[in-house]
Amino acid sequence: MTAAERTLDSLKPYPAYDSTRLPLVPLIPSGWEVRPLQSLCSVKARLGWKALKADEYVPDGYVFLATPNIKGASIDFENVNYISEFRYFESPEIALEEDDVLLAKDGSTLGIVNVVTHLPRPSTVNSSIAVLRTIKRLMRGDFLRYLLASHLMQTEIEKVKDGMGVPHLFQSDIKKFALLVPPVEDQDAITAFLDHETGRIDELVREQEQLLEDLAEKKHATCFHAVTQGIRASTQLTATDHPWVNLSPLTWRRWKVSRAFGALGSGTTPPTDMGDYYDGEIDWVNTGDLKDKPIYSVPKRVTSDAVRDYPTLRQYPAGTVVMAMYGATIGKLGLLTAPATVNQACCAFVEGGPVLNRFAFYWLLAMRPFIVALGYGGGQPNISQQTIRNMEIIAPDRAEQLEIAAYLDARLAQIDQLVLEVRANIEDMKLLRSTLITAATTGKIDVRDWRPA
């Protein structure tokens, strides 16, 4: 049991409760009220016709916050864009003040909430953020931040959001939110409690996230060392002129990728308006299916008619290594466990040469940073099959390749298991954080006499 869990377990309910008409909170502590948000604070946002374009940003000036800046435990005033004095004063109603609550009202970040605890310089917000300014004698901004982050209010936000493609929260709906309003003294006590407890949880989460980064580095280092220097302690190394590998065992040989495998190939996408080509019995691998592990199933399949009509849509055998060549997934890998076709964004490495695919999989995984650097193009870099064919791989004989692959199978599986455990810990901590916020802001626990240990 963590310290936060012990704290939650030790806290008791309020001595008396009153009924409400809220389905999710039928009881609230005596002395609390339920009031519409608009009676407690103003709601302002940037008018649509005053939206800014990227070419209006200036090197220095007035801070222009976007939703990524309010996602953390505190508002990020450093990694921001800046706007001119004219544009800042054009919308004085959203010129930020301390204790303002910022609520993301558009897109995938809808519902994210934060509070302005300090203003390092004059700041405003973009059109995706609503500014809530409370009447201080009725509602504290830092308490409202926690209340809006509670399960109660996030459920309400989810219920009233609008928009099929890009979800949106209208100001008129925000104003109608039914808020639980404790006396301001209780609000201050709840905020102090949550600041302390969520701060402890956030620190634990940061430690676990750092552990994830360390495990990722360890995984890459383990893989890189094994596929470039082997796992035999007595191996004699020599310097190489390979652009990615400084040292390799004396007995290992260097192969061009075009000669290291039985074949290299790709695939295609049959016309999507041809129903006879889809939902068949043949797996069709796309780059989104590449997760740096064996591929056991994919969501998309094609028919034998598609394979017959499109010669480039060939079936590759089980054991084939598949690598993404385009866009954000460039370098991602998969290993076929059954015959499958691929689309044109994938490169297929078919076994049949001096390099075994189990070894090749780990070699490509270790070399991904270098492979990604070979990409060309703008925001979505690509890597061509010709570039892949011209790459060189240094590899031992087949027996040693199998030794290395078996070693990495076991060693990386251990690291992957640790990663799963750490991620589960992080999710548990985030759930506990949410539970604490909801319990405190809805009056399920009485923190008025709480003191930090």
TrEMBL record:
The keyword NADP does not apply. InterPro entries: Restrct_endonuc_typeI_TRD, Restrct_endonuc_typeI_TRD_sf, Type-I_RS_S_subunit. The keyword Transferase does not apply. Residues 194-221 form a coiled coil. One of its GO terms (molecular function) is DNA binding. Residues 29-206, 265-413 form the Type I restriction modification DNA specificity domain. It comes from the Bacteria. One of its GO terms (biological process) is DNA restriction-modification system. Keywords: Coiled coil, DNA-binding, Endonuclease, Hydrolase, Nuclease, Plasmid, Restriction system. Signal peptide: none annotated. Belongs to the type-I restriction system S methylase family. This is Restriction endonuclease S subunits. The lineage of its organism: Bacteria, Thermotogati, Deinococcota, Deinococci, Deinococcales. The gene is hsdS.
